Amino acid sequence: MSERTREQSADALLNEISSAFEGVSRVGGRSWTDALAMGHMGVPHVTFPVAHREDDTTWLDVANDSTWDPSPNFGGFGYLDAIGYRYYLAAAMYRAVRERDPSELAWRIELPFKAKARRQHLSRWILTRSQHEVALKVAAFFRDEMFAQNRDYEFDEWQRVIESWRGVDVGAS
After folding, report:
1. 55 burial class (0-12, 13-18, 19+ CB within 10 angstroms)?
2. In terms of Cα–Cα distance, which of 129, 127, 37, 23 is closest to 83?
3. Which pTM value belongs to this model?
């Protein structure tokens, strides 16, 4: 695949992410700062050094915030509730595709394979069918990118994400 074709594919995927997650908010959900506090101290809503501004109004604001780190050393995706997970997942996928840099996203969003952990995670699952399908497309996009770049470990990582997300029962679009 040529570089131009990959760029076109990335642009189309950005549009799909925007469309699938349009109107998604984190109102009523756990913020990123709370998730970091949970990971660091085990309690939400504590005085915590600002890790990311909390004045965002859309997940796209987060994706465009250069101070937001979607791959912190503690906290993050594992400590979000369902509302926060969907909100920050959209931001992380959008930024990763736009910058063509998945960083540690695969590791952060892979669903657990062990039954108990998987059931616990899926009990908080609120992605719509279209959001789920876009997430699979993002994973396939990066798997293919890693294959093209001869990055076998990262290819395998993205393949595991795809396998972990396949077969998840999701609601209607």
Report:
1. exposed
2. 127
3. 0.87
Q: Which of 34, 85, 95 is nearest to 61 (CA)?
A: 95
The type of residue at 93 is M
* pLDDT at residue 50 is higher than 50: no
The token pair at 122 is 């899926």
123-138 pLDDT, tens digit each: 777 889 899 999 999 9
The encoded tokens of residue 106 equal 């695969």
Where do we find the tokens 């992605």?
Answer: 127
Q: CB of 2 within 8 A of CB of 20?
A: no
**Burial class of 160 by CB neighbour count within 10 A (0 to 12, 13 to 18, 19+):** middle
Q: Find, among 35, 139, 136, 38, the residue nearest to 87 by Cα.
A: 35
Three-state SS annotation for 98-145: HHCCCCCHHHHHCCCCCHHHHHHHHCCCCCCHHHHHHHHHHHHHHHHH
